Amino acid sequence: MKRSIISLAMLPFLSVGMAHAAEITDEGQLIIQATVEGSSCHFNSNGGDSAIIDMGTISTSDVYKIGIGAVSSTKVWNTDADSIEIICPSTVELKNITFSPTKFSEHPGLLQDDGGDTTGVGFAVDFYNTATSFVNINENDQVVDVSGLKGESIGNEGVKYTLKFDARWARLAQVVKAGDVKSTIKFTVETD
């Protein structure tokens, strides 16, 4: 019987403790934090994501002086207008660039107009993969090693790489016609 009384005596104290515990509420927060980083490199907004090599005008008589499937000896290149700037973090280096021209002519390595060969005139395009050497863009999905391309430190922003191109006129057909010619080359930059 003593055991029962002790049990009964303890029961009211337990109930009171539970009642007080139920009235006290504490709130807390779980904060989840992360940073989403974009592509490691980006185009310089001033330089844009494209460049135009303005070949100017060439007369059909000058194109006829070029052999069919051959290119002129004169390169057209302007360091300011014909370059694209890419900015990468200082811990990232350029590795490869893959070039994908819209349309090649039947002549190896010569680009024709994006809409087809309507004038008999096209281009040969070179890309400077180092400060002193270049490669001819002569196949689709062409991978070019750019690990030798040196960038310019721009402080906290990272490193600026300048991609330079030049082009030459090409004769694609026996008959040459007057008209506009435009060739587009898309490219993908790969980093380490």
TrEMBL record:
One of its GO terms (cellular component) is pilus. The keyword Signal applies. Coiled coil: none annotated. Keywords: Signal. Residues 32-190 form the Fimbrial-type adhesion domain. Residues 1-21 form the signal peptide. SUPFAM superfamilies: Bacterial adhesins. It holds the Pfam family Fimbrial. The keyword Signal applies. One of its GO terms (biological process) is cell adhesion involved in single-species biofilm formation. It comes from the Bacteria. PANTHER family: FIMBRIAL SUBUNIT ELFA-RELATED, FIMBRIAL-LIKE PROTEIN. This is Fimbrial protein. It comes from Citrobacter portucalensis.
